[in-house]
Amino acid sequence: MPDKTDVHNSRSTDSQSDPMQPGRRPWRRLFSVVIRTAAIGYAAVMLLLVLLESRLVYPGAYMDIPPQPTEGIVTVKF
Asked: What residue numbers bound the domain in which 34 lies?
């Protein structure tokens, strides 16, 4: 009678050698790749925004910057 290690080893080799029973299903592998890519992309965008904050189109949008004088600006109302 085989011991537990023999049964365990025979199961793992059978499932690895059987092409119909791969270790991970293709949709799970694809899902894993998509989630990993999205997470890495999100982290890269956040890092880029932090590093290039001073070069944004409207820097200081949320900072407390004193207002500039509005002399010479004419407002036309209809």
From this structure: 24-60
